């Protein structure tokens, strides 16, 4: 799990991760004894592709804006100095520069004072901050002592303790000049060809101008090497120094200045090279000789690369003049020993390295102080297949590393100090040029074609093949020929055809062992670290032949598991056919739930990567559909496939929980199209009439009709209790048949109406209604209980409803007309009745109170004939519309 902590999951592509997790068959990773390991490896593989690594946060504090402004002003003024010719103006500008530097110093002091103030204020809340501040700016250190000598004596004297600590410091923790200047390593350059009367301000102005020199701000003041035309310059940025060195030659005020990296010569003060001894001189013999004659305390003796040559480490600093005189005056077995100083050693030569051990493994091992007594590594460079040069940033760890036994991958390593012979360092830097080649394989190739290279460069330079290492070709040349040399080498490299082929790790050793002949070695260069084969040659046709030979040895067969949806989408994209056309010689077969690739390794790998890209882009959604649609979908896959092909939709599907379908498509556009196809393909309708006939004899007819539909349209529809789902191709036919069936059903029904209408129809129009029913074949037409009862189809019932409605409209219009006439007549009779006087003596001249027609009914009221029952009948017959305005109405109410 620690590896999974490296990733920044806030920036992860979760959509892609989820898609990849969904297409994995987890049963393969969750079974077996090593299932935990397989599961974690798969998760890490997905994270590596879709999750970026965490960015390391810089611990450097940003430079305040005010200080940046001051630094920019200072830089502009420095540039201005190179253009000034007047001493007065130059002094004026320099005074401004000094004032700016004073302001910068003041800003630094203010920052320190503010930091001190904050530390004091927060001493209670955050003591760690205070202690960190005091430690950073402390001028004193804890007291040391007392110390104990090797013989057990205790030393309290400060002077003696200082001498003891100095000796120990120089012998074990000595800081060399290289390490003291380590912070400037990679930022310091050596400028050659500078005239003695050339002003340093002009050089500084030039190299700080990014447009002119590709440089930048310079750290401190330049240093002119005494009695030479060389100047040392240190930049604030390594990138600026690198850009300047790339240019090599700079034109400054009509002077051509050459630029190279500055390498300070530092001597190894506690080591020396001893040579010219007797043939049988051993390490013990040399140790005894030196300790006896000079009383040197020898720490360790290492054999050199030549017989009779030894590297001798001493406990303390060596007095070389005295040692040389001693060797001259005291020969060893008649041989006068030769003593030489040596440049500081910060590298070791590691031999007998197993082929399973990579440069990264060596760097991790020797960079671990506890495991190897080493330290920070600056580089690890292979010399041969089993020999590497490991360089440390600190030279004081080399001796500790070499005195310790080392073992990697069960193989014992031979570790010795590595140094360059003195004669290799005597060539002036002005006469030697390191030309960077594209790779170390280019240098190996050129070494095998020395005659061609020497012939091309013989006019301008000499190639130091012995000193050319890694990817650097060392040349001895005259300065004026540098441009011609670089152009010649550029043309030479352009004439080389290079082919690089990735070789599978499990096949690398077998493939590399196949090409071992001398002719093959002229072309093939195998990189075991990166599992690559490099093919180089001047003849392009020969390189292509060698490449085809290698590819023939890299044929492989691989297979991947696919889900049915992945295979459908790949087929829709015609991936399998296009892959074979795209990659010559590649065969792709899709069998069941697998796809098999057979061909050259690189083509198979590329084709698989293309397939994975398509699978990662697959999108998915869940579409709700009418209930039981899934039954039809499963039976009509060919029909759906045909529709998708016609509309050029690339997708697949699977039924969900009965009322949904899960859709898969190659992208969101095809997913939307697939959803539209699904919605238009499956049509649902409700069957409301089924509920009406549930408990009637018609329901049995309906069930028989449903069975006939299923036989006529198998797998095209599903008919539920009160709904139907069908495919668009047959939905109209099915709907038409259901409508016809519904129209053929006989229903018992009735038509309700008001009482007055019922009485009227019953009395006057019943025969007409019966005739209409016989004409339209309506059965059991009967007026009863204020209703018209009948039996027939929906169409017949509808005709009768329309017929009755028209009759009722006629009745209503006549009622309105007669109601108006009746009101006028009633008012006239009432007025006459009220004006008539009845005298008992005379008797009743008229026995009728009123004689009135209402709605074609004649109502005759006499004084002795009105009873409660009569009142009720009249009111009911009038349906409550008899107006009570006195007269007849009043008499009726009074009588009632």
Automatic annotation (TrEMBL):
Residue span(s) of domain Macro: 846-896
RRM domain residues: 187-264
The UniProt record lists the keyword Secreted: no
The entry's keywords: Coiled coil, RNA-binding
Pfam family, one: RRM_PARP14_3
GO molecular function: RNA binding
InterPro entries: Macro_dom, Macro_dom-like, Nucleotide-bd_a/b_plait_sf, PAR10_RRM1_2, RBD_domain_sf, RRM_dom
Keyword RNA-binding tagged: yes
Superkingdom of origin: Eukaryota
Matches recorded under CDD domains: RRM1_2_PAR10
Coiled coil stretches, renumbered: 790-824
Listed name of the protein: Protein mono-ADP-ribosyltransferase PARP14-like
Organism of this sequence: Octopus vulgaris (Common octopus)
């Amino acid at each position: 799990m620690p590896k999974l902590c490296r990733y920044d999951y806030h920036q992860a592509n979760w959509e892609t991760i989820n898609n990849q997790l969904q297409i994995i068959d987890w049963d393969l990773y969750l079974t077996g004894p090593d299932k935990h390991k397989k599961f974690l490896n798969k998760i890490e593989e997905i994270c590596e592709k879709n999750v970026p690594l965490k960015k390391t946060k810089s611990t450097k504090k940003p430079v305040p804006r005010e200080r940046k402004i001051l630094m920019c002003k200072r830089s502009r003024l420095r540039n201005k100095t190179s253009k000034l010719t007047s001493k007065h103006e130059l002094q004026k500008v320099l005074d401004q520069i000094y004032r700016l530097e004073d302001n910068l110093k003041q800003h630094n002091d203010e920052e320190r004072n503010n930091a001190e103030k904050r530390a004091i204020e927060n001493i209670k809340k955050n003591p760690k901050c205070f202690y960190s501040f005091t430690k950073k700016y402390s001028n004193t250190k804890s007291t040391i002592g007392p110390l104990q000598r090797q013989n057990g004596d205790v030393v309290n004297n400060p002077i003696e303790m200082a001498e003891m600590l100095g000796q120990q410091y120089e012998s074990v923790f000595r800081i060399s000049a290289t390490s003291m200047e380590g912070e400037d390593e990679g930022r310091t350059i050596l400028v050659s060809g500078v005239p003695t009367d050339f002003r340093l301000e002009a050089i500084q102005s030039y190299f700080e101008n990014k447009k002119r020199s590709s440089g930048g701000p310079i750290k401190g003041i330049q240093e002119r090497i005494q009695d030479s035309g060389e100047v040392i310059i240190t930049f604030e940025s390594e990138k600026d120094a690198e850009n300047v060195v790339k240019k090599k030659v700079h034109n400054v005020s009509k002077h051509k200045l050459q630029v190279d990296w500055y390498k300070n010569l530092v001597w190894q003060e506690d080591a020396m090279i001893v040579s010219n001894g007797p043939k049988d001189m051993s390490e013990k013999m040399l140790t005894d000789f030196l300790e006896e004659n000079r009383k040197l305390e020898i720490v360790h003796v290492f054999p050199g690369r030549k017989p009779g040559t030894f590297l001798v480490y001493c406990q303390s600093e060596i007095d070389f003049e005295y040692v040389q005189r001693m060797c001259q005056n005291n020969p060893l077995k008649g041989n006068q020993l030769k003593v030489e100083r040596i440049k500081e050693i910060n590298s070791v030569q590691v031999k007998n390295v197993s082929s399973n051990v990579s440069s990264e493994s060596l760097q991790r091992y020797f960079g671990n102080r506890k495991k190897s007594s080493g330290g920070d590594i600056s580089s690890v460079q292979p010399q041969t297949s089993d020999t590497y040069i490991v360089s440390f940033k600190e030279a004081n760890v080399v001796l500790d590393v070499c005195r310790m036994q080392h073992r990697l991958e069960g193989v014992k390593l031979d570790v010795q100090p590595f140094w360059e012979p003195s004669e290799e360092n005597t060539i002036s830097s002005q006469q030697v040029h390191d030309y960077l080649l594209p790779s170390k394989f280019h240098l190996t190739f050129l070494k095998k074609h020395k005659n061609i290279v020497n012939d091309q460069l013989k006019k301008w330079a000499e190639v130091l093949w012995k000193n050319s290492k890694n990817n650097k070709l060392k040349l001895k040349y005259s300065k004026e020929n540098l441009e011609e040399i670089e152009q010649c080498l550029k043309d030479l490299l352009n004439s080389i055809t290079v082919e690089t082929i990735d070789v599978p790790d499990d096949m690398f050793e077998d493939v590399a062992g196949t090409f071992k002949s001398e002719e093959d070695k002229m072309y093939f260069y195998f990189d075991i670290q990166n599992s690559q084969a490099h093919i180089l040659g001047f003849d392009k046709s020969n390189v292509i032949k060698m490449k085809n030979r290698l590819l023939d040895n890299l044929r492989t067969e691989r297979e991947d598991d696919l889900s049915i949806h992945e295979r459908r989408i790949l087929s829709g994209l015609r991936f399998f056919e296009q892959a074979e056309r795209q990659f010559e010689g590649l065969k792709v077969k899709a069998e069941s739930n697998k796809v098999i690739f057979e061909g050259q390794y690189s083509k198979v790998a590329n084709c698989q990567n293309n397939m994975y890209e398509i699978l990662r882009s697959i999108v998915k959604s869940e579409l709700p559909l009418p209930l039981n649609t899934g039954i039809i979908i499963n039976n009509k896959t060919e029909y759906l496939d045909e529709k998708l092909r016609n509309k050029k939709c690339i997708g697949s599907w699977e039924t969900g929980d009965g009322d949904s379908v899960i859709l898969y498509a190659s992208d969101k556009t095809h997913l939307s199209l697939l959803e539209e196809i699904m919605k238009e393909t499956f049509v649902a309708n409700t069957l409301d009439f089924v509920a009406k006939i549930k408990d009637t004899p018609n329901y049995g007819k309906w069930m028989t009709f449903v069975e006939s539909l299923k036989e006529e349209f198998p797998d095209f529809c599903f008919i539920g209790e009160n709904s139907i789902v069908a495919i668009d191709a047959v939905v109209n036919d099915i709907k038409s048949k259901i409508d016809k069936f519904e129209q053929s059903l006989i229903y018992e029904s009735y038509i309700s109406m008001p009482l007055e209408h019922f009485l009227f129809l019953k009395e006057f129009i019943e025969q007409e209604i019966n005739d209409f029913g016989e004409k339209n074949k309506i059965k059991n037409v009967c007026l009863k209980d204020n209703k018209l009862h009948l039996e027939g189809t929906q169409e017949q019932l509808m005709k009768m409803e329309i017929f009755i409605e028209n009759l009722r409209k006629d009745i209503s219009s006549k009622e309105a007309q007669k109601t108006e006439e009746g009101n006028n007549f009633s008012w006239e009779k009432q007025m006459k009745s009220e004006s008539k006087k009845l005298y008992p003596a005379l008797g009743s001249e008229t026995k009728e109170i009123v004689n009135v027609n209402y709605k074609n009914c004649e109502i005759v009221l006499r004084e002795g004939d009105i009873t409660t029952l009569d009142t009720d009948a009249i009111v009911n017959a009038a349906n409550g519309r008899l107006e009570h305005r006195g007269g007849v109405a009043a008499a009726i109410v009074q009588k009632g």
